[in-house]
Write a structure and sequence with these properties.
The chain has 348 residues and is an alpha/beta fold. 24% of the residues lie in helices and 28% in strands. The protein contains ten helices and 19 strands. GO terms for molecular function: agmatine deiminase activity; protein-arginine deiminase activity.
């Protein structure tokens, strides 16, 4: 019998989380002093619980910004970068039978909206610099364009995604939805795909990444953005998305346990509404890091996620600086399962 590919869920035990660090050569330049503390806060929470992999052009600069942390848990890899969205340019980890593998998909700046010539090479360079364990094999997934923020796995053969993103212009528009589904099932060993046809956030550059809208918390639980304000521009789309989620069933035919997250308060910058969302949380070893937006709704979202993750600490991180570039906490991170990333002791 052929070994089955498994796309592990985010709650699978992790070896490390990748951050691709902001610098003056990125779009963060005008607000670099504002966004760096956000990255530092995320980094420190990760370091408490697992290894942190920092991709950056200048290790000394990042060390000065991080300050006094446990550097035995930090791996630096110096290379040129365009931007900081590790969720979308980072490698995607799978288990192919007993073999650990990292898929390196094409990253083209969300359908060639932004420069990505350096970021598309990051995963390949991480292999060349022996960042991954010797047992992990690299898999070049060209010519498929795929970003990590566009897919959600329950770790048991079900994928949650959006029609809007995967079929969008300058990604894989040469493939119809049926062809896309076939390829995704082959690549990730999937039994089925749950396609969301509704849902979006104003100011989103990703064409409706699912990690801004709805997330698996366990194989039977999905947290999602709920909009109850009829005057909000998102009301109709998110109401339709909610109905889709209610109609989805698990493999055994039972409905999912749905955990509604509040629609974040309206945040604007330079006259534009930003895609603030509480669905953009990161699951790490023993904790869930949740984006906060200096709003009373922060605690509402934290309470809801504590119910979804009763055995994990829920930690809020101020992400108002992040959404000024139209992303949030999950978007700037990429996790790697236990055994995937080397330990510093092996590197020396």
């Amino acid at each position: 019998m052929e070994a089955k590919v498994i796309l592990p869920a985010e709650w699978h035990p992790q070896s490390a989380v990748q951050l691709t660090w902001p610098h003056e050569g990125t779009d963060w330049a005008p607000i670099i002093d504002e966004v760096v503390p956000c990255f530092v806060a995320i980094a420190k929470e990760i370091i408490k619980r697992e290894m942190l992999l920092v991709v950056c052009p200048d290790e000394a600069m990042v060390r000065a910004q991080l300050g006094d942390v446990d550097y035995s848990r930090v791996i630096f890899r110096e290379m040129e970068t365009n931007d900081t969205w590790a969720r979308d340019h980072g490698g995607i980890s799978v288990f192919d039978g007993a073999q650990a593998a990292v898929y390196d998909f094409v990253f083209n700046g969300w359908g060639m909206k932004f420069a990505a010539n350096y970021d598309n090479l990051i995963t390949r360079k991480l292999f060349h610099t022996k960042t991954f364990s010797e047992e992990v094999i690299p898999v070049n997934m060209q010519p498929i364009v795929l970003e990590g923020g566009s897919i959600e796995s329950d770790g048991e053969g079900t994928l949650l995604t959006t029609v809007e993103c995967l079929s969008s212009v300058n990604r894989n528009e040469y493939l119809g939805q049926e062809q896309l589904e076939y390829h995704l099932k082959e690549i990730f060993g999937l039994d089925r795909i749950l396609w969301l046809e509704s849902g979006y956030l104003a100011g989103d550059d990703t064409d409706s990444h699912v990690d801004t809208l709805a997330r698996f918390c366990s194989p039977d639980t999905i947290a999602y953005v709920q909009c109850t304000d009829e005057g909000d521009e998102h009301f109709e789309e998110l109401q339709e998305m909610e109905q889709e989620l209610k109609a989805f069933t698990r493999k055994d035919g039972k409905p999912y346990n749905l955990v509604p997250l509040p629609m974040a308060d309206k945040v604007e910058w330079e006259g534009e509404r930003l895609p603030a969302t509480y669905a953009n949380f990161l699951i790490i070893n023993g904790a869930v890091l949740v984006p906060f937006y200096n709003s009373p709704k922060d605690e509402v979202a934290k309470t809801a996620l504590q119910q979804a993750f009763p055995d994990r600490e829920i930690v809020g991180v101020n992400c108002l600086p992040l959404i000024k570039q139209h992303g949030s906490l999950h978007c700037v991170t990429m996790q790697y399962p236990e055994g995937f990333v080397i330990s510093l002791s092996k590197e020396k």
